[in-house]
Amino acid sequence: MPAWNVNVTFGGEKRRRYLKVAVLGLGACIIWPSWPYFVNSATSAPRGEIHSRASDLRVTLPAAAVLDVGSAPAEPSAVQILVPLLCAIIPVAYWWYVLVPFKRRELAASKRKGDMKEYLQDLAIAPAQERKPERWLFDKYLREAKLIEAGEASGLPKAVQTVEAGLQEQLPGGNAQFGVRVSPPADPSMEKAPLLPLPAGESSIAPSWPVVQPPEPAYSTLNDCQTCLRCPSAYGCGCCSTLCYATLGLVVFALFLVLYPFVAALALVLLLLFGWLAGSVMVYLACLRPPPALVWKGAKLLQLTRLTFYQLPKAAEWRVTDLKPKAKLTTGLLQYAIAVRVPFLSEDELYAGGLFESLVRLAPSAEFMTSSMFFSAPPAISSLSSFREGENPVEYGMEVCRDIYPKVVQEWKDKTSDRALAHFCLHGLGAHRLEKADPSLHTGCAYVVRTNQLAALPVRDGFEHYGNDVYFDKDFKVVKIVREEQVEPWEMPRSTTFLPDGSRTWEYAKFCFRSSLFSFVTLVDHLYGCHLQLANVVVQAMREQLSSDHPIRRFLLPFSYGTININDLARQTLVTRDSFVPQLLPLDNEGLQLAWASAYKLLPPEYVLDTASGSEGPMELMETLFDREKVIKRKQEQGLDTSYYQQALRYWRILRKFVADYLDHYYGTGSRGEMALAADEELKLFLLQTVTQLQAFSDPFSTGQVHELWPSVPNSRKKLIFINFLTRFCELVTVGHEQVGQVQAYAQDASFCAFSWSKSLRQEGPLVGPKEVALGGALLMALTSTPMPRLLAQSPTDDWSHVFPAMSEGDRAKIFGDFQSELRKFSTECDEYNATAAERPFPNDFGLWVFNPKFLETSVSI
Ligand SMILES: [Fe+2]
């Protein structure tokens, strides 16, 4: 087993590199403010006068002047020494850090596709007796491009190549310069071997890179500090909290008084040193289009700062008196999508967030963040840098995201084999998109996961389009992958079928499928379906129709926590043209418009109601929309009785019982309870506003038929609809969101899943997304993983039951306690399911994490 190292080295080279940059930066800082002094002192009048008189032979110089010039010791100032020194250092630094790496990248690109490639090809086909010196000189490049296959020469040529290879590593742009240690395999025959051992009988030419578990994120440290300073509980002086806070405040005030002169002096020095630079950067960001790499670095810095000052939500501290009254919310229109409006984040309630959120709320307008005054959209990623053969993409992404990357819950020991593909579709990201295949059209196929719906979306030049449907037999062995090719509108549809023959082409087809599904689920199921449709519409209707003391508004408080804030941030930074997600996708502007406009039709099959048959009326359609148990049972009857749906049904029943118990307690049981529920006017308007605003289902409901039919619906049926409606919302923002948003393991590894990749990857290169996309994908994952309140209370601060109106404390504790007890039992079952995974036969020999309550949060997060 080769000694691959998954940890990035932060010592040695990297420290020296930082030191060099610091010295150069310091030099620049010194010369900048002192330049005028240097110029003035070098051209001052007295010196010029002496020089002038000394050079004029007709003038008789006074003895003092001659003595002054001739015998005075050389006293160059520090500035005079520093300037020529920096004049030498800065060009060298420019050559070392900018010019050479740029030229190396240019050469690498040319070797892949350009003049150098053509030159090497000419050289390779030249007769053996000709162009020998050139062959010797470019021997390494010819071998790397696989243009010659003869054995390597031994002796001096080999020694020269070894020295040259070492130089390449050490020179600017080489790996040694960036502190990334990619240990080469000891044995050349292991070059393409998978990093993780594959199960017996499996083979794959694509390596599976191990998951890297990041350390605790930045916010944990600060929150420990906050807990420590929590007054008065931390000190046990609960008798007088005011005095405790006042004492601490006095200490802070005293410190401020003592430190003020130093802080003010330091601020002034920093302003003098860096003010010009900071001003230039602001002008640059506001007026020009900074390169994507710079934008991503800025995003990382922003998230690091945000997490450092982020306040972990503590449900026990919520106060119902802080809830905002029922009112029409001010909203912003979602770009691209049809008629989707998102409330401004200033409308949110209770959401604490942190320093970042506080500053954003101070902004002069809701659109300030994305206005040109503050943010200039960067150009989309266009230059693509390939990973080298054997270079670890997980390590590459985690080098940048280590401090802000969320915890990775899923365990993937094998990512690229055919077995892993089955696990990906049955237990992973494809589990909710698994469908029965039609065996009359696809012989020997029983199941399918589709992404060819995206195949026709136009992409930018040089990028590969999305697509690929993967078919499995009844035992979940992969049968084939069908790729729909992009054709002109007037051409016949054309598809390519790939068979599991272990070839590179087959591996490419699998990579395309995984990446397409990853992008599909992120864009459609997560961002659109979960955030901007159901969560957005329900929370908006809740705030506009339910009073702050309404029992359902109180019940939904944990499940709607932070939703407005998060969705508005998503609207402004993830959906808007040229923002983070569009930058990473291969789609051009037309492709993005098409994707968003048709997003509701691209949702998973059970979301899209079958209105064409006309067999079900509007009320039945609405019941089917919310009754998850009915949908799951229908799937099981069709033959989709997978572990995913078994756990989904178990969780649904726990959640539904919690909702039903709560409604029974507040409205009463039996016909009296049904009547009270049906008579609740606010609740009725809440439901009707939701169903008419859901874009995906607006067709059957927009005519107002539900409104007309609602009065004639029996009370018992209304109660069932209310129970399923509330349960469906709570289910979707918890496990539904977890299924589509728990993508840490996928986003961490661009060879597992990538948002976009080059078209040329079909023919050549390691099967991994470009470095820019790898970095962007990992950063996007980190940016969109803000912690939310926990569903399963794991500490007293997680208890939100106090927000429920209840007849007595005992009733409240019982409803919440029963729910928590059921969740805890289910969590143990999920743990056991994962612990015994290896004992089960294929394809169920894999874990399921998305339903385990101990990992779930109460509301959506980005
Ligand atoms: Fe999310």
UniProtKB/TrEMBL annotation:
The chain crosses the membrane at residues 21-38, 81-102. Keywords: Dioxygenase, Membrane, Metal-binding, Oxidoreductase, Transmembrane, Transmembrane helix. GO terms for molecular function: metal ion binding; oxidoreductase activity, acting on single donors with incorporation of molecular oxygen, incorporation of two atoms of oxygen. Residues 471-669 form the Lipoxygenase domain. It comes from the Eukaryota. InterPro entries: LipOase, LipOase_C, LipOase_C_sf. One of its GO terms (biological process) is lipid oxidation. Pfam families: Lipoxygenase (PF00305). PANTHER family: LIPOXYGENASE. This is LOX3.1 protein. It comes from Symbiodinium necroappetens.
